[in-house]
Amino acid sequence: MNIGFIANDAKKKLMQNCCIAYRGILARHDLYATGTTGRLIADATGLSVHKFLEGHVGGEQQMSAMIEQNQMDLVLFFRDPDSVALARNDGADLTKVIRMCDIHNVPLATNIASAEILLKSLDRGDLDWREMYR
Predict the structure, then answer these.
(1) Which H or E element spans position 21?
(2) Is residue 119 over pLDDT 60?
């Protein structure tokens, strides 16, 4: 399955730690991330991560496009609810990622608690329906 990763600056370390903890599960899937987040995940875990552009220069748009084309099966988007970017128009592309997940029925985790539930579900095979959905 294709798994996407986005993390606001304040959540990048948490994303790294999540990926270290669930490396065994993630290693069996194709990973995609916005630029810096992808580099940090790859450096911390040794996993192969397809890196989009940096988020603010088009990475979120690339992620949204994959979701729209039904090429993304799960998204972990660790967002900082206090982020200035989300409060301004800069967050429009980030909001689009969330919207596209909702429209195209792509499971989305926006915090560590929901990410752990989705990753454990992925490991159990609970998300295999995504294969048929595609």
Answers:
(1) helix 12-21
(2) yes
